[in-house]
Amino acid sequence: MIKQLRIKDYILIDELTANFHDGLNVITGETGAGKSILINAVDIAFAPRVSKDVIKHDKEKAVIELVIENTKHDLSHLFEENGIDNFGSEIVLTKEITQNGVRSRVNGTLVNQEFIKQLKNYFLDIHSQHQTYAFMQPKYHITLLDNYTCYGDKLLEYKEKFKEYQNLLSQLENLKTASDMTESQLEFLQFQINEIDSANITSETEDEDLNRELEVLENAEKLKELTGSSYWAINGDDGSIMEALTKIKQNISKAVSYDSSLEELEQNLIDAIENLRTAGSELRDYSQNLDNDTQRLNDIQERLYLLDKLKRKYGGTLQAVMETFENLSKELNAIEFSTQNIDELEAKISHAKQDLEKRASEISEQRKNYAEVLSTLIQDKLAKLELPKARFEISVQPKELSSDGCDDVEFLISTNISEDLKPLAKVASGGEISRVMLAIKSIFAQSDDINTVIFDEIDTGISGKASQSVADEIVELSKYHQIILITHQAIIASKADKHFYVRKSQTDETKVEVYVLTGDNRIKALAELAGGEINEQSVEFAKSLIMQ
What we know:
This protein is an alpha/beta fold. It is 57% helix and 19% strand. It has 18 helices and 15 strands. The protein has helices at residues 35-45, 76-81, 113-123, 129-136, 138-148, 152-179, 183-198, 206-218, 220-235, 241-256, 263-289, 294-314, 318-384, 430-445, 464-477, 490-493, 519-531, 536-547; strands spanning 2-10, 13-19, 24-29, 61-69, 90-98, 101-106, 109-111, 124-127, 391-402, 405-414, 422-423, 452-456, 482-486, 498-506, 510-517. A hairpin with a 2-residue loop joins strand 9 and strand 10 (405-414). Helix 6 runs antiparallel to helix 13 (318-384), helix 8 runs antiparallel to helix 12 and helix 9 (220-235) runs antiparallel to helix 11. The model has no long low-confidence stretch (mean pLDDT 86).
């Protein structure tokens, strides 16, 4: 359950801390006082996206922190996988909203939104006007029914099998498309493959290697002249560099006999002479071995012409040409495979469809059984909520195989004995919608492990005896879950285990403040709810509500 909500610099709130009870927590206040701000703050703590508009004016960031007490779920493995410290039964969820983005932390560790979504599924169910809309849409009804039932593993297995079935259908479509290729298209595909294959490309850089060799061959005479003249400058008979260095070395060797400090210089000269001798030998060999090979030059030019032609046709680089060859080869293999294996794949598809139909039929039977039970439970609940003539039915009708089976599920209702069952979305009265939603929520909530259920004005459009029935139902629900709700009904508010009052003040700036009501303050708030003003009659009525 939610033990504590802490808010700082959020919308109209500077800072507040609200400690919730484990039973029924009621929030009241004047219209427009900001009651929904608390509910929205809880919702935002778990939300995937948050607008920076929630940051209080002139503040850098807004912070929402929830302290959750976990007594139902073993989350140690989930926390360990995500590197989160385990504080036992206490979980601290912090949402920080800045101008640059949103950060979520659990027990001080940054987490992604997928983790927050998992966490919400364990602990929180918020019933708002948006969710009322969702509950009324037929596309959500099959999910609501499936969430109540105990065939979850079967449904997961079916969904996996349906994915496999869809993959087989996709493969068949691709094979048939390939097998429909005309003979001329096949011939052209084979021609492209042969054209690349016959080139015998040695590597992705063959053209670069050949261009370097070509440049050498085209400049062989210049290279021979440059390297040859360099060799004679080093090793010539008269006035060569080697002759000059040898004389210098002889002089320094004599000098060493007079000054030993010149020994290092002598060694450097010896090394220089040796390096120069080696360089001269390499220049001589390079010059002597450099031939003007006209045939090799022609061969390279022809080879580069072929490679350039392939590059222009198949991608611009030899790497692209080779990748194209692989792709074309795979395409041809797929075509050859397809013509041989379409019959085999169609047999697999037929078998997979039969298996799916069997699985879907089993799930459908269970859906119908649960739908009948749930319809009765919800109808009984509606009677307790002062809709005694209401009829409720969960319709399960056949449809083509899909990812969720072979059923169309829709909630149908009639609130008047003279009217036929109609889709839930056709319910017109706001008071009736509220009670229908509460009945559905009550039945589904009693079957799940959600800790906290939040109702945002579930009592819209009801009064009198219906209010008492709604109050009794919410009290009953609070035995199984922590309930946090906003209400305008004194009868409902009087049942609270903890009563919060929201007040908006406007001086130099607008502020929202939250108080916990006890004693006389609570009686006055109930009296104001009941009668619109505080007087002797409304106070007595408020006291009588608390005594019930």
